[in-house]
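Researcher: Next entry in the queue.
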Amino acid sequence: MTRQEYKYLKLVNSPDELKTLDREELVGYCRELRQYIVDQLSENPGHLGSSLGVVELTVALHYVFNTPYDKLVWDVGHQAYAHKIITGRRDVFHTNRKLGGISGFPKMEESPYDAFGAGHSSVSISAALGIATAARLKGENRHAVAIIGDGALTGGLAFEGLNNAGASNTDLLVILNDNNMSIDPNVGAMKEYLLSITASRHYNKLKDKTWKFLGPVPGLRRMLEKASTAMKSALLRQSNMFEGFNFRYFGPVDGHDLPTLVKILGQLKDIPGPKLLHVLTLKGKGYSPAESDQSNWHAPGRFDPETGVRIATESGLAPRYQDVFGETLLELARDDDRIVGVTPAMPKGCSMNIMMAEMPDRCFDVGIAEGHAVTFSAGLASDGILPFCNIYSSFMQRAYDNVIHDVALQNLHVVMCLDRAGIVGEDGATHQGVFDIAYFLPVPNLVIASPLNEEQLRQMMYTASKHDGPFVIRYPRGRGEGVDASGELVGMPVAKADILRDGTDVALLTFGPLGNRAAEAASQAAADGISVLHADLRFAKPLDEELLHRVGSNFTRVVTVEDGVKAGGVGSEIVRFFSDNGYHPEVTVLGIDDRFVEHGTPVELYEQCGLDMRSILRALTGK
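Model: Structure for this entry, 623 residues:
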């Protein structure tokens, strides 16, 4: 199907226009909407599989409910592309995730149809409950719907929301989008529980027959609802967990059967109190490459929509930092049987799948539960195991309390590897890993390190394995610098910087891989006659105090560079050190200003934030 052949898609630019289609036309619209998503994402990469899986569900929700007066809360925003296209953003969808374009996630300031922002998972039930409660307090007869994936349901916040919603008896609809996947296949007891519900052929057959017989008859539906709990318990030989939370459970139903979805959602609108509709969908539905390889087609990059062949966009041979982590973890684990890996549902995303393939019994995917991942790691460490807990920087924010109380306070030997630290690019403000330096610097007992290149990452991991106490290593998304990362593991002294260039006019102190761009700036400054001392700090905590005393005593100008927020970051800590020790150089701190960094390519965003080579050069030369 070419764009010129779209018949129904061009007719719909709002939910009101969607409602003008009849049921048969809606099916055709879904087919075109799915193809449009494939066409758009083949050229402008984004989250493909999740959005294809909820096309019919999204259409049904906007067809039945009165949005934006009724509120839809998407959890997570990976599911929201069809929603965005239906709600007036079809013609700008080509700007998705681009600098100045629309966000890849729901965003309240972008559209009144985006009831709540959701870049991280497991938030929808709590948020929708708040929205429903606000409507009740204001006397408004509006509906609130939370659409949550089964992967997001592994997060503890989802259960807190279920517990509170059930106890409050608030009018709330939770739709469980069950596709047995998050990014990688789901794990844990919740997966098996949902499978037991969906696999009960006798229960589903009896439920369907009973619903058809009694459902349309006024007064008997309540009887059916009361009888359903006993029926489910008898056939499943267990109580229904959701009804244990005081939710009325409906389903499971086929999430790609549009007429049935419209009918059921229309009926559920009239049922008061907390209720949950269990919907079965297929991630990547309607596009065979995405259906057959769901993990890789979660966010596949550019591809040929006709053949499904993915188009390589990177020609460099340098390994990705995440792969260096994965290979080094396996290398360390072969020599140290205490070492295990822990990840909250991102084995492929952080490359822990490399170790999993060889040592599956020493790797633990705990589901989308970052706080649990940290405390689980602390428990392992308390009994002599050495966990490498890998969590994306922006996701680690959700485990901050766990790091302070369960790891740092008890001085436990947990190695926390923060993937995607710093600017990450197109995923935008919810995913930029720019806060971890500032939020970890005040925490006692932590060592905080960041490598200049991929070989330093290997050495830092080895150093962390030998250190007695909690150790944080942050590193960026993407490829390294092309430095050979296969040398002997010898480690490095903690709190010791590396002098990359000596000089006398200005001191350049950098933390992390941005030091490579800073090195280019220092070389250019030298060509312009400015002598630069460039030190790769390697450790933000503890700092190399010997170096700082030397700099404070001998330099009147200092420039610091970090891939994180200025407030409370490495630069501000260096300024504090100078002040405490009576040094008064002029310090220029380069980092992220007091704002959220939106979406765009990393190159665009580094330039926007004043962290590209030219900006560093201007700080060195004063021009």
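Model: The chain has a mean pLDDT of 89.
Researcher: Noted, moving on.
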